[in-house]
Description:
Helices cover 74% and strands 1% of the residues.
Amino acid sequence: MWKQRADYLYVLPALIVMMVVIAYPIYYTIDLSLFRTPASLQLRDKIFIGLDNYTTILSSASFWKVTWQTLIWTFFSTLFAFLLGLGAALALHREFVGRGLLRALLLIPWVVSAVAASYVWKWLYHSDFGAIGAMMVQLGLADQPINFVDNINTALPSLIVVNIWKEFSFAMIMLMAGLQTVPEQLLRAAKVDGANAWQRFWHVTFPHLAGVSTVTILLLMVANFNSFIIPWIMTGGGPAGSTDIWITQIYQLAFGRQRWGVAAAYSVLLFLIMMTLGYFYVRALTQGDKERAGA
C-alpha cells in the first residue's frame, strides 16, 4: 500500500502541471462559454446567460457556412495529402539512383515554416506578379492572370492546394515507415502466383498499411481542423468570408469583435470534435498494439 502511494508521489508534480496547463484552461473556457461578454464590458463584468451562446451559434447561418467550409477544407486536404503521400511513399520504397536526394527534396514542404510557406504561396498566387498566373498565361491556359486568393470561387481551393503541399510529406514519412512492415516473402509469393502490381498492392501491401493509414488520416484531420496559419496569413478568412474556417472564426470573434463568450462556445464545440478524433486515434493505436501482441 505504501509503495503504491510512493508511486503516486513520483507522478504528482506532472499531474499538477497538467492540471494547471491543461485542465484549468479547459474549465475556464467552458465556464466562459456560459456568459455574455459585451465589448463595452470587462471580462470581470460578464453576464451569465447559460447555454444561450450555443443556441446563438447553432441557429446562425454564418456558423453553418463556416462549418461547411471547414468540412471541405478538412476533407479535401486530408484526402489528397494522404493519397499524394501514399504515392510518394510507394515510389520511394523502391531502390533507384538518387532516391536519398529525392526523399530530402520531398521533405522540404514539411520542414519549412508554415508562416514562410504561406507568404511564398501568397506571392506565387498574386494576381499581378504571381509566377503561377504568369506561367498559365504563357502556356495559353488563361487569357490573363487568375485571381486565385482574391476570388470567392477560387480562394478556398487555392488554400487547400497549399495545405496539401505542406502536409503530404508527413503522410509520406508515416507510410514509408509502414511499408517497412510489409513482408517481402508475401510479395514474392504473390508475384510467383501471377498477381500483377495492383493485385499485390491491394491484397498484400495495403492490408499491412491499414493501421498506419488510419493513424495518419486521423492526425491529418486533427491538424486540419486546427489549421490556422495558412488561411489566416494568406486571406484572413476572406474574401467575403469564403475561406473562414472554425479556428479563424474563433480568432476573429475573440480578438476582433471581443465576443469572448461566443468564441469560448465555439472552442468548446471544437474541443468536443478534437476529443472524438482523439478517441479514435487512441483506439487505433491500442488496436495496433493488440494485433502485435497477438502475433
